[in-house]
Amino acid sequence: MKVGVFDSGIGGLTVVKSLLQHQLFEEIIYFGDTARVPYGIKDKNTIIRYAIEAVEFFKNFDLDLIIVACNTVSAYALDEMREHSPCPVVGVVEAGIRASHNGIKNKNANILIIGTKATINSKAYETGLKNKGFTNIQAKATGLFVPFVEENIYEGALLQESFRHYFKNITKPDAIILGCTHFPLISDALQHYFKDDVILIHSGDAIVEQLENEFTFIKKHTKPNLKFFASENPEALRGVAKKWLNI
Amino acid sequence: MKVGVFDSGIGGLTVVKSLLQHQLFEEIIYFGDTARVPYGIKDKNTIIRYAIEAVEFFKNFDLDLIIVACNTVSAYALDEMREHSPCPVVGVVEAGIRASHNGIKNKNANILIIGTKATINSKAYETGLKNKGFTNIQAKATGLFVPFVEENIYEGALLQESFRHYFKNITKPDAIILGCTHFPLISDALQHYFKDDVILIHSGDAIVEQLENEFTFIKKHTKPNLKFFASENPEALRGVAKKWLNI
């Protein structure tokens, strides 16, 4: 099977990492809209317009499936992408809600959703979790976490200070939904800040769980063919991909 | 006179503020490329492409002058904008270099340039200051300052921690070039961190100084006509403009 993975930038590579670990797909076509990144500060209509353009780009490749690795796009533009796409489209938000439903047994568990401003404002996770019966939900837009990762800050005093800044009025959660594909890169620091008993829900793992349940016909491939495209500076994206994915 | 002010987003409003304070221009047309902001993390070729598109947009207005309020665009795309523009184009980088030359008398003064990754990588300020005879120059990309301002963080523990992060290996400067139009909003905090004897060079004031010297025919207008355009969500831009500019 041939899959397209779409993200606003490089963050979706954390989803590709999960796909590779589970040896899914024969061919992975990654597209990062690096010329217009980040999406998380942008408007609903703009995000939808960019997402439909990504579907048009993927039409060049005769794909079997599109994975929306970007939480912001998944929160706002999944229906519109499905309307325009000739193949199925799955997104990390739906996957994350499903993974929470499967992984968190207590419906009164305190769940903290963190993400970009756009993702949090959409209330996509919140609504989905409530529909699954969860009652105790906190949500916090953590707009600086993407810039931190882009600056290669994954630990240290500045990141800890930002945790105190964002989480000062947050009740200690039982689980945290990492509602942005950049956030797995600071998951160790988050785990340390909130102590080890906090469950972290990771978009990449959530997508793999959904695919293994719903697309049981997917055959394993130890060496998938990988292609990386970007709307600017694809060489830089390929460089980061090589480093992050050890390819 | 009718002027166009171009910025990647809302930061250029700090330049408009200076123009208003000095009562320059009869009509100010502001264009913020909010659908593709920020430019400071992007590639040279992308920045040039977006800048030429802004010139095309301004052709609708029969302008007398274009002011590039964005340091990143000024650093990379001024020549290309001039090639495509029917009217003169001035940029904040050239203005900042000129203002430093006029305002800092000692050529051995320690000057610190701060800006986005793209602006610092361009070495536009560095080269210009060296050509003016300055010998003692430090430059630091401070990628988090724009996100801080976008998050309305202008002071406090987190911002101070980021100063320690970025400036730990910086020798105390005599002057700082605020090489990004967002930075005047954290200038009080910077002034406090580096103590009161540090001179801050501000893009908006630098442009006004250049205009008053070179465009002496500009007539003063106490109530200029202001128009704000944005590539996404112009209402939000107008809202910020009203607040920042007290209009």
Brief account:
2 copies of one chain form a homodimer. By secondary structure, chain A is of the alpha/beta class. The first copy, chain A, is 45% helix and 19% strand.
Largest pleated sheet of chain A: 5 strands, parallel
The percent range for strand residues of chain A is 15-25%
Structural class of chain A: alpha/beta
How many H/I helices of chain A? Answer: 12
Tell me the strand order in the biggest sheet of chain A.
4-3-1-2-9
Low-confidence stretches of chain A: none
Radius of gyration of chain A: 17 Å
| SSE pattern of chain A | EHEHEHHEHEHHEHHEHEHEH
Looking at how many chains there are and whether they match, the oligomeric state comes to: homodimer
DSSP E strands of chain A, number: 9
Name the helicity range of chain A: 40-55%
Note the gap between the termini of chain A. Answer: 20 Å
Most extensive contact: A-B, 26 and 26 residues
pLDDT average of chain A, as an integer?
95
Question: Can you offer a commentary on this structure?
Answer:
The structure is a homodimer of 247-residue chains. By secondary structure, the first copy, chain A, is α/β, with parallel strands linked by helices. Chain A is 45% helix and 19% strand. Chain A is built from twelve helices and nine strands. The first copy, chain A, has helices at 13-21, 44-58, 71-76, 78-84, 92-103, 117-122, 124-131, 145-150, 157-167, 187-194, 203-214, 234-245, and strands at 2-7, 27-32, 65-68, 89-91, 110-115, 136-141, 175-179, 199-202, 225-230. In chain A, the strands form two sheets. Chain A has a five-stranded parallel β-sheet with strand order 4-3-1-2-9, sandwiched between helices. In chain A, helix 1 links the parallel strand 1 and strand 2. The mean pLDDT of chain A is 95. Chains A and B meet through helix 8 and helix 9 of A and helix 8 and helix 9 of B.
